[in-house]
Amino acid sequence: MLSKHVLNCGFSQWYSLFADISIDSKSMKLSDDFIQYLLSDGIVLPKSGSDGNDDEIIEDHDWGDDNDHQNGFPRLPDGGGDDSDGQSSGAEAAAPEFPEMDAFMRSALDSLGAVFPKLNWSSCEDSSWMSATGTRCLTPDDVYLLLKSSDRIVHDLTQPFKDCTDETPPVEHELVLKKWVDMNPSMEFRCFVANNQLIGTAEL
């Protein structure tokens, strides 16, 4: 397989040609700092994605050996407990901010209603279990959580040309928000088009 075949399957390569018969969608190029955020360890939702709620932080813990914790809980380091004012003195994970991405998401949600997020090629279906609404996103936080939890998204960002035999070209990664549509999975098909003609279909 050649890299051009992969590029031709990217959202922006075909959407403008078939927009009239495709689900309404909005897209935005990903900035380098947002890509680094998606590839970083742990899950810290951006501050701007919250609607006034406390920042949601989900982190992996290194439990260490049995001497590092008591009663099944990790032992706090010296001085890591609550101080005299009841405030935790432990280090907190800093919540990043992406105002342009946040504005794009809110605009798309206002325009499309609930959305289904994906990147150039892959969606976040593998992380749907992280959200009570699955892949149906109603807020920026919903989108951030699915993106940050998805191995498919990491694959899109790090090795989209894994099986290609030619030189790897540069890629402009983008976030795509598609209008949510309730679909029967048995009625989803992958379509193949050549020379503006539908030449085949296959069940997903």
UniProtKB/TrEMBL annotation:
<protein>
    <recommendedName>
        <fullName>Cell division cycle protein 123 homolog</fullName>
    </recommendedName>
</protein>
<comment type="similarity">
    <text>Belongs to the CDC123 family.</text>
</comment>
<feature type="region of interest" description="Disordered">
    <location>
        <begin position="49"/>
        <end position="93"/>
    </location>
</feature>
<dbReference type="InterPro" id="IPR009772">
    <property type="entry name" value="CDC123"/>
</dbReference>
<feature type="compositionally biased region" description="Basic and acidic residues">
    <location>
        <begin position="60"/>
        <end position="69"/>
    </location>
</feature>
<dbReference type="GO" id="GO:0005737">
    <property type="term" value="C:cytoplasm"/>
</dbReference>
<dbReference type="Pfam" id="PF07065">
    <property type="entry name" value="D123"/>
</dbReference>
